[in-house]
Amino acid sequence: MIDETWTGATSEVVKITITREMIASYTKAIDDDTSIYVDIASAKKAGYQDIPAPPTMPIIFWSFINVPWLEDVGPVVHGKQSFSYEHTLIANRTYDCVIHLKDVKKKQINREIMQRSNHELLLSYNDCIHATARTTLLIVKK
Predict the structure, then answer these.
(1) Distance, CA of 18 to CA of 113 (rounded, Å)
(2) CB contact at 8 A, 43 and 53
(3) CA–CA dist 137, 72 (Å, integer)
(4) 139: left (phi over 0), alpha (psi -120 to 50) or beta
């Protein structure tokens, strides 16, 4: 379980460069064959400077970020997620990424104690937030 004193904590900022190869790999994994994600001509024709990232792609950025309050918490269930954008994320840009622990709440369900934690992943470019990914994680007490 997450120690509730972590509420309000922020991870270190990690710079993540989105590459065309990352986008192609992600779209293949989610079985999305939309041409703008793999073909620069299609992307430019659609008005993008480079290949755009699919809207759900920021979820993989968690794997690049050390989230200290999740160390040794045991199994985690992904509850829900949402994404909001000020600007489309595109290939060949480096984004500053940080995760905030918004809140932690305990719930008792039947005989088990569960903890629900809400997080925000912020992606910034040139000191401007381009995207926010909100994620709820569920942890069952060991």
Answers:
(1) 38
(2) no
(3) 14
(4) beta
Predicted local confidence at residue 69, as pLDDT: 96
Tens digit of each residue's pLDDT (9 = 90 or more) over 45-102: 999 999 999 999 999 999 999 999 999 898 898 999 999 999 999 999 999 999 999 9
Burial 10-49 (b: 16+ CB within 10 A, else e): ebeeeebebebebbeebbeeeeeeeebbbeeeebeeeeee
Residue 112 near residue 141, CB atoms below 8 Å: yes
DSSP states along 89-141: -BTTEEEEEEEEEEEEEEEEETTEEEEEEEEEEEEEETTEEEEEEEEEEEEE-
For the chain, what is the mean pLDDT? 95
| Four-residue CA torsion sign, 20, 14, 31, 135 | negative
pLDDT tier at 126, thresholds 50, 70, 90? very high
Residue 76 contacts by C-beta under 8 Å, 6 or more apart in sequence? 70, 137, 138, 139
Has this prediction a pTM greater than 0.85? yes
Give the number of C-alpha atoms closer than 13 A to the C-alpha of residue 104, restricted to the C-beta side. 18
